[in-house]
Amino acid sequence: MNVYLDSSVVLRRLQREPAPLARWGQWEHAYSSVLLRVEVLRTIDRNRLRGALSDGEASELISQAHAFFDAVEFVALSDGILNRASQSFFTVLGTLDALHLATALRLVDVGSMSLTFLTHDAELALAARSVNFEVEGA
Predict the structure, then answer these.
(1) pLDDT higher than threshold 80 for residue 71
(2) pTM recorded for the entire structure
């Protein structure tokens, strides 16, 4: 199975939050937008600055995140992805979610592959289902 990972799935796993994805790591190939790296690292740092994580805990999470990033194939934000993300979707989507969904759509179009979209975000899951992705996590 090929999967597209949203940052919510990675963050829930890294931060050991309740109800992580059941089939974590049971995929052949994992893809995500380069945004995933930024979102994950910014969230860790934001939590550190708010006092929710100590410096040591943040450092450990950053190390774990980098180890995870090594196993993901990141997709750059091309003009085609940016163009698709700026167009209308069937459901309400914020900018970053639109960029994730447009990236997954681009992978399917260019790679002629099927992808399972992994997210814990209910709005993004609905939008992904509306464009015929199988969704897990939400």
Answers:
(1) yes
(2) 0.92
Distance between CA atoms of residues 69 and 95, nearest Å: 22
How high is the mean pLDDT of the chain? 94
What single letter denotes the amino acid at residue 127? Answer: A
Q: Residue 33 is part of which domain span?
A: 2-136
Q: Which residue's entry shows tokens 């199975």? A: 1
Query: Considering its fold, how many domains does the chain have in total?
Result: 1
Give me the pLDDT at residue 87, please.
96
DSSP notation for 55-112: HHHHHHHHHHHHHHHTTSEEE---HHHHHHHHS--SS---HHHHHHHHHHHHHHHHH-
Distance set, CA 75 to CA 15, 21, 34, 53 (Å): 24, 22, 6, 29
CATH number at residue 18: 3.40.50.1010
pLDDT digits 0-9 by tens, 32-59: 999 999 999 999 999 999 999 999 999 9
Comparing CA positions, the residue from 58, 64, 127 lying closest to residue 96 is: 127
The kind and range of the H/E element at 31 are strand 29-33
